Please model this.
Amino acid sequence: MSEKWDIYVDWNPWHGCTKVSAGCKYCYVYRQDEMYGSNVESSLVRKTAAFNLPIKHKRDKSYKIEPGKVVFTCFTSDFLLKDADEWRPECWDMIRERSDCWFYFFTKRIERFMDCVPADWGNGYENVLVGCTVENQQMADVRLPIFKSLPIKHKSIMVAPMLGPVNLEPYLDSTIEEVAVSGESGNDARPCNYDWILSVREQCISKNVPFRFHQTGAIFIKDGKTYRVKRQYQLSQAHKANIDFRIGKYFVPETVLFQWSDSDYHDSEPKK
Model:
């Protein structure tokens, strides 16, 4: 899931997931398992060989994941999945130990959040970014009120896969550090309309919330025309649209206080 930059690392402590809403219909985890010929059902959740990756060491005793990395966490499952309840406390221990890295996970199970955090969570860990995923207005109105009420220091909203127009304005304020939107990939992808994306962008600009257009998806509608976008171009075509707002170097939102100097960021003005 990570971009091809050294700042990012993928960590999938477990693999597999169960479908909970419309956005899951053509889940990329299921699709990739089928493509690679997995002998295990994608709905069966299992620990991976990378479970303890954050605390693995090199021969010189230094961590394999260097300080300052952004660790994309559990992107082939859901970090709040009930099936993983017995393993998650150990993951929190590793995240706590690696306070020199940033851990980012997104979830469609935000209602389970307070049942899944460690006893010392308090108002949240400084090095944990949580993304709440919504795919349509119905899920936005169900999940985001819960998300907004939770003690999390760094919050992101993921509209992915975007299945229709979404009004996020009631949920946007300075506590939301980023909104990212994406179309759906895969042969069975449902279409994503550029007008929906531009609408969310305008909502974010009106609330001064960073916005990122992450990828087009496979079926993209623009100016009334439908395009099939090959997988290798879905990220680059979104980037070429040049409509991100308040997104800096490495596609990091300006509001996220990473341990880099101010010179590592560049301004992104609204494009008309």
